[in-house]
Amino acid sequence: MNETRWIYIDGKFLPKEEAKISVYDHGFLYGDGVFEGIRAYEGNVFCLDEHIDRLFLSARAIALEPPISKKEFSDIIVETLKRNGLKSGYIRPIVTRGKGDLGLDPRKCPKPSVLVIADTLAIYPEEFYKNGLEIAIVATRRNLPTALPPQVKSLNYLNNILARIEVNRMNVGEGVMLNSEGFIAEATADNIFIVRKNVIETPATYHGALPGITRNCVIELARKDGKEVLETALTPYDLYTADECFLTGTAAEVVPVTKIEDRIIGSGKPGLITCRLRELFKSITSTRGRKY
Ligand code: PMP
Prior knowledge:
The chain has helices at residues 26-30, 48-61, 70-83, 126-131, 158-170, 213-224, 236-240, 272-282; strands at 6-9, 12-15, 33-35, 38-41, 44-46, 89-96, 113-119, 133-137, 174-178, 184-187, 191-196, 199-203, 228-232, 244-249, 253-260, 263-264, 289-291. The two termini are 23 Å apart. The protein is globular, with a radius of gyration of 19 Å. The protein folds into 2 domains: 6-119, D-amino Acid Aminotransferase, Chain A, domain 1 (2-Layer Sandwich), CATH 3.30.470; 126-282, D-amino Acid Aminotransferase, Chain A, domain 2, CATH 3.20.10.10. The chain is an alpha+beta fold. β9 and β10 (184-187) form a beta hairpin. The strands form 2 sheets. Strands 8, 9, 10, 11, 12, 13, 14, 15 and 16 form a 9-stranded mixed beta sheet that branches.
């Protein structure tokens, strides 16, 4: 099982042990860079174009110009999977500001670095999907869009990590982050949805959510299935009183939530609409994207 992993760094594939970046890289010194989390299912890179588009938008937002094109990035991702003999797995593309000096000025970093890691994925235990997760609202607020826009998937995840530390202390499955005004933004590494009177609702991204690829797919699948979906403003009250609740994310896919802070959601079992959306989502994972 101790297979060598091949990591792509700036034009070369190196064994995991030799794949290193400079301590002067601003990705390391300042979290100055962007990344993606992508999944491959049975020889299909799920929603590859959508992930690459988001990566390039994140880069644009921080005035970082990837040194390769979208097409080249896509090809490198597929090549990394092939070199690692992975038909299913998790892919982590990264663009860092590159090597500079100890000051934070990006102008001192002449060349961004590109990395692609591909590995197996530890999937969530089946029990989470059968029984649903317990979640809680954390004290850490989501970054202000006027400070560090949550739409940018940057290498600086401290906001989410501080929230995750609270989640661990509370010993629950995931944490819900509110924005500075007290509206629900998202979970620490997933988007959140509720169902009320057969209407599916999720916070609009301007409330401080990453525009999740899984979120977008679920919205599209639900609408095609004839359901009403609202991207709206949600408060803790809406969560506490929802008929159903679920989280979406690349690793989690669609995972039901059945308890929040001592309150049972709906019947306490994964909801009907949640299960339907999970099924619909699973039906597209090995077809939508780029085959290899
Ligand atoms: N929100 C945050 C903060 C995330 O890091 C992620 C990705 N894990 C998501 C939401 C879900 O996005 P996606 O469906 O694209 O994985």
